[in-house]
Amino acid sequence: MFRKLFIFTLTLLVVSGVCAQKKNNYQPPFSNEMVAFSWGGNVPINNDFTNKTSWNGFKLEYRKMIKPDLSVGFEMSWNGFEQYRPTKTYQLRNGAVTTDFYSYMYTVPVALNAHHYFHFNDMVTPFAGLALGATYSEEKLYYNIYGSNYYNWGFLISPELGAIVKFEEGSGFGIIVGVNYNYSTNKQSQVNLNGIQNFGFQVGIMLGK
Asked: What is the model's pTM?
């Protein structure tokens, strides 16, 4: 559902952006380099380990303009997920155990990215991007007085839609907003983890020159 909606929106934005650029004199949101810091939230998709929406996350990124409408760069994020499971009896191989527990998952996606920019007006510049890289993930379980920790890596792909908003024409300072879909191939059989998917959104500040 999320993937189909994201692909449809991305296609619509690309088509409308191409048409708009044919009619307008495009001005890039930054001429050379840009750095950005964003606060982020994430909604897990098909994740039995933690399925609660997280408001604990941030994103750092750098972009270098290589054409007036195309940049390349890299990004790093940190996201924290947590969930409480009430007391329940779990059947084990050698018996059963009754307990409540807390589950935590921390992810650190690191990726190279590319973004294409569309001219809307001199103050707002929509963009579409794609990031490819790797995700480090850490899963923690705490039950009664015991705990378990697991670590893993996976391949990451993350398409993104967003916009850069300026408050003054020609300024290097602005607001950056975006939504993305993240899929990582991380696996951990002990906690029934078979891939990490989430729908994320970010809002932050950017400095360009």
From this structure: 0.81
What is the 3-state composition of the chain as percent helix, strand, coil, each rounded to the nearest 5? 10, 70, 20
Tokens describing residue 146:
């015991």
pLDDT, one tens digit per residue, over 90-103 is 665 666 667 788 89
**φ, ψ dihedrals at 57, nearest 5°:** -170, 155
Q: 175 with 203: CB under 8 angstroms?
A: yes
Alpha carbon separation from 167 to 158, 170, 172, 174 (Å, rounded)? 28, 9, 10, 7
120/164 Cα distance (integer angstroms)? 11
Over the stretch 103-154, which tens digit does the pLDDT of each residue have? 999 999 999 999 999 988 888 999 999 999 999 999 998 887 788 899 999 9
DSSP line for 155-196: EEEEEEEEEEEESSTT-SEEEEEEEEEEEEEEEEGGGTEEEE
> What is the H or E stretch that residue 20 is in?
helix 2-23
Burial class of 95 by CB neighbour count within 10 A (0 to 12, 13 to 18, 19+)? exposed
> Mind listing the domains of the chain with CATH numbers?
2-208 (2.40.160.20)
What is the rounded distance in angstroms from the CA atom of residue 166 to the CA atom of residue 120?
12
